[in-house]
Amino acid sequence: MPARHLLRDKDRKFRILFRANPQPMWVFDPQTLELLEANAAACALYGYSADEFRKLTLADIQGEEDARRFTSVLNGKASAWRHRTKSGRAIDVEIAVHRIQFGGKRVQLAVLMDITGRTQLEDQLRQAQKMEAVGMLAGGVAHDFNNLLTIITGYSQLILNSLGPHDPNRHSVEQIMKAGESAAALTRQLLSFSRRQVLQPKVIDLNGLVSRLSAMLRRLIGEDIDLRLELRPELGRVSADPGQLEQVIMNLVVNAREAMPQGGTLTVETANSYLDETYAAQHMQVKPGPYVLLAVSDNGAGMDAATQARLFEPFFTTKVVGKGTGLGLSTVFGIVKQSGGSVEVYSALGQGTSVKVYLPRLDQPVAMESGTAQKTAVCGTETILVVEDDEMVRSLVRETLERVGYQVLDVADPMAARGLSESHPGAIHLLIADVVMPRLSGPALAQELIGRRPALKVLYISGYTDSAVVNSGLLEREVAFLQKPFTPAALAEKVREVLEGDGKTKHAGE
Ligand SMILES: Nc1ncnc2c1ncn2[C@@H]1O[C@H](COP(=O)(O)OP(=O)(O)O)[C@@H](O)[C@H]1O
Ligand SMILES: [Mg+2]
C-alpha cells in the first residue's frame, strides 16, 4: 500500500476510534491550549456541542492556572482535575494524555474518566470517619463525666437537704449544684452528638409536634421574622424521641433566626418523601425507602463551602464567643442519625439555607398518649437490689434510698447480684441496674432474676447505651429508665412510680 493511503487509513481508523469511543476524549494544542476536537462522549459530559468545543481553550473548562499546570504535569500519567461543564457544574475527571499526530499537527489527546461520583463518596467517607472519631471522643468523655456529675450533684443535694434554711453553707452548696447541672446539660448535648444517648422513641405525628411547638417558635424568633408552616396532610408517622425531636427543631430554628438578623422568612415544612436507589447510591449512609421530611429553611446569610464542610462538628461555630456554642447542629446530627435518619444542608451565600432532616417513615397508627402521670409519694419500705459497677454512684443510690426508708442490697457486678438473689431469704421488690455492664447486661440479668422472682420490678439507669445496645433494641419502649446524671429526688420518685406501676411504667419527661 502506498504511504499516502496508509496515512489516510490510519487517520480514518483514528477518527472511528475517537468519535465513537464511549470514553470522553478531546484533543488540544499544548502551545495555544486550544481545544481542537471533542468526541460525542465528551460533548455529553460537558454539555457543549462539538462546534462549541472547538471554540474553547483549556482555560475555559479548568481555569487559567490549572490549564498551564496541566500541560507541564501530564505526560501519559493519569491525574485528577476539577472541571466545569457548560452549565457551571463542577465535575471531577481523571485524565491521561498522549502525544499524537492530528491533521498533520503534533497535538495531545486527553482520555477522560468521570470520577465525580467516586470523589463525592470519598468525601462522604472521610467526613463520616471524622464524625465517628470525634463522636467516640466526645461520647467517651461525656459518659465518664456523667458518673462524676451524678455524684457531685447527688451529694450536693443530700447536703442541701440536711442544711437548715439559714445555714451559711447553703449558698455555696447551691452554687455547686448549679455548676453541676450546667455541666450535665453540656454532657447531654455531647452524648446526643455521639449517638450514645438513650432515646425513648414513640410513634410521632410530626405535624402535630410542629403545630404544638409553633407558638413557642414564634416567640423564639421574634417579630421581624415571618414563620411559615407548610405541613402536608396525610403525613406518615415516624419513630423518634419526642423531646429530642423538639430539640432538633429548636436548634434549626434558632440557627435560621441567627442567619436573618434583619428579618426574613423562616419556613418549617413537612412532607412524605421517598429516597430512591439513586439517591442512596450518592449518599453512602442512606438506605433507600420511605421517609418523612422535615425541612427548616431561611432566606438569610447562607454559608460558604468551608463552613458547610464543618458545620456538624461539635464546637464548630462562626459566631462570636458567648453567642455560639457550636453544639446546635452536632446535636441535630446525633439525634437524627441515632433515629435512623439523615440530614442534608443546602446553602448559598446571601441566598439562605435549607436544612433537611429525613426520618424513616412508618405505617403504624399513632400510639395512645399515656395518661397524666400522678405525683407519687417518694417513701417506701420495700427491698431493692442495686447493681452498679461505679462505686460512688452505687453508694449515692444506696444512701438516697435508705434515707427514704427502703431496704437496700447493693452489689458491684451482675454475677454477684445473681448469687445474692439466690441466697436472700426475703422478698426483693425492685432491681435497679445499669444497662451496660461487663459480662452480663442489665436486661439479661433482669430476665434471669425474674425467672426466679416473677414479681420483681426493674428500673434501668444509664448514661447511655452504646450503639450496639441501641441497635439491638435491648431497651424496649416499655421499660422504666432513668438517665444519668439524676438527682436523689428524681431517683426516689422514679423508684416509687415503678414499684406502684404495673411494670409498664411511663418514662420521665413525657
Ligand atoms: N441557617 C443557617 N444559616 C447560616 N449559617 C448557619 C445556619 N445554621 C448553621 N449555620 C452555620 O453553622 C455553624 C454551626 O451551627 P451550630 O452547630 O448550630 O452552632 P452555633 O449556632 O452555636 O454556632 C454556625 O456557626 C453557622 O456558621
Ligand atoms: Mg446553633
Would you kindly provide a brief summary of this structure?
The chain is α/β, with parallel strands linked by helices. It has helices at residues 3-19, 40-46, 50-54, 58-62, 64-73, 116-162, 170-193, 206-221, 242-258, 277-282, 305-310, 328-338, 391-403, 414-423, 442-452, 467-471, 488-500; strands at residues 25-28, 35-38, 79-84, 90-102, 105-114, 202-204, 225-231, 237-240, 264-275, 289-298, 342-348, 352-362, 383-387, 407-411, 430-434, 457-462, 480-483. Helix content is 44%, strand content 23%.
Question: If you had to describe this structure to a student in words, what would you say it looks like?
Answer:
With 510 residues, the chain is α/β, with parallel strands linked by helices. It folds into four domains: 3-114, Beta-Lactamase; 119-193, Orthogonal Bundle (Helix Hairpins); 202-362, Histidine kinase-like ATPase, C-terminal domain (Heat Shock Protein 90), CATH 3.30.565.10; 383-500, 3-Layer(aba) Sandwich (Rossmann fold), CATH 3.40.50.2300. The chain contains 17 helices and 17 strands. The strands form three sheets. Strands 6, 7, 8, 9, 10, 11 and 12 form a seven-stranded mixed β-sheet that branches. A five-stranded antiparallel β-sheet has the order 2-1-5-4-3, sandwiched between helices. Helix 6 runs antiparallel to helix 7, helix 6 (116-162) crosses helix 13 (391-403) and helix 14 (414-423) runs parallel beside helix 15. Residues 365-376, 465-472 and 503-510 have low confidence and may be disordered.
